[in-house]
Amino acid sequence: MKPEQGPQEQPDRHPKRREEPVGRALARREEPDPGDLAGRDPDRRTVARREEPDQRGPARGEEPSQRILARRDAFSAARDLYVNVPREKPPALPPNPDGGHVYRRERSLFMQYVNPEILACYGKDVTRGDTDQIMAQALRATRLAVLLTDAYLIFPSSYIFELPWFGIFLDRIEPLIHEGLVRHTSPTPELTAYREIKVREYRRDENNPYSTSQRFHTFSDLAWYPRFGKPTAVGIADLWGKALAPEGDLSGVVHSVARAWRRPYGRVAGIMAKAPERLEGQAFVKRFVEKTLPGPVPGDADSLLAQFLSAAYLRCYVHDLDSAILTDLPIGPLSCKLDESMEDMKGRVLSSRRLDLALRWLRVDHFVHCGASWKELVLLRSSPEFGMITSMLYGSGSANAFRFAIIGASRSRHFGPAVTCGDALSNAAVVADHLARLLG
């Protein structure tokens, strides 16, 4: 019989991993040997990290200017294709009887929980003293995210440029990257061309993260995930115009600005409606939007403006990628007020607290957060029994049925605190068996 152990005994059996502070890791980090990249899969798309510029001279018989011009021509071609050539949309999926409004494990999960603008809405700075806390919660969130999808974890390519410590984060989830389970997304797979586009969008930023002075190093295993649909700025602009109506999501901001500027609501709404045009191709983020206005945004409206822009950004990505997001994290909700009560977000806003509670009931929580390797987490999520449980948690199933199944499973000698992946799989199987009986 498996011995019963309380939660206080678990740390002795699962020594918790001690993560190195981000600042120390950044200072300690060394560039990999270029020879380590030899023999990698040539079909993998490559993405970039910071590196020293190429110091090699021109090839034999090649003038230095020839190499530079050829490289710039390639970048310009990729850029022009992105800007000017209509992109084909992926084939339409067969219609779902639920209309896409329920949780589905085949959806990818969008990693919004390290986005700098979203974190700023909750008082966190990705470049200063909050980096260790953000890194710790990002790794914890990724463990849960892996369990909630049978597809990919996807992040925008902008993270590679905008987060100084993002390369360290990718190092720590390298097994997922190697298996193609974590992917970056952008309109073009060539990051050099992507950077040329973005450097113009951030051209008036004091510290342009896409500046050509930044140096990068390649991640040969990190695959690209294509993003179709309209550019993010266009999608946000569409939502912006609708939100300025008297009952729209930005009506509170307009009222606050109208009081501060001592102008009528309609006049202020008209001025703000021209912000997308006045951005002149700059990124649709708060600091640039505020510069298009003739006066300052008062403090009470400033946070509402930031929340709206981040929520609009999330909506664009979630819909374009047909993905979900993980919310209710210890560091904050990180949903920018998006929730399942909204018709277009049903089945797409997944609470981490709900999953954490279920993992405790399943007696696998310590294993998931402290003992499991990335490979073991993928093995656990791939079991039909665990998939059935998460579908019950986030779908239309009865919460009481899951409670009754846990109560029934607790009487089994095969149900106890999970120490190994086999234990975790066994616990999930016992609970799923009871659920199947309850559901008939």
Per the principal axes of the C-alpha atoms, what is the gross shape?
A: globular
Oligomer: single chain
Number of helices: 21
Report the span from N to C terminus.
29 Å
Query: Which sheet architecture does the biggest sheet show?
Result: 6 strands, parallel
Order of helices and strands: HHEHEHHEHHHEHEEHHHHHHEEHHHHHH
Strands of the largest sheet, in order across it?
A: 6-4-3-2-7-8
Low-confidence stretches: 1-15, 30-99
Topology, number of strands? 8
Helix proportion range: 40-55%
Average pLDDT figure: 83
Radius of gyration: 24 Å
Output the structural class. Answer: alpha/beta
Explain the overall architecture:
- With 440 residues, the chain is of the alpha/beta class.
- Among the domains are: 232-317, no CATH class; 363-439, no CATH class.
- Helix content is 49%, strand content 7%.
- The chain contains 21 helices and 8 strands.
- The strands form 2 sheets. Strands 6-4-3-2-7-8 form a 6-stranded parallel β-sheet, sandwiched between helices. Strands 1-5 form a two-stranded antiparallel sheet.
- α3 (64-84) crosses α9 (191-201), α11 (251-261) crosses α12 (265-273) and α20 (399-409) crosses α21.
- The longest helix is centred in the last third of the chain and has 23 residues, at 299-321.
- The two termini are 29 Å apart.
- Residues 1-15 and 30-99 have low confidence and may be disordered.
- Residues 1-68 are annotated as: Disordered.
- Residues 10-68 have a biased composition (Basic and acidic residues).
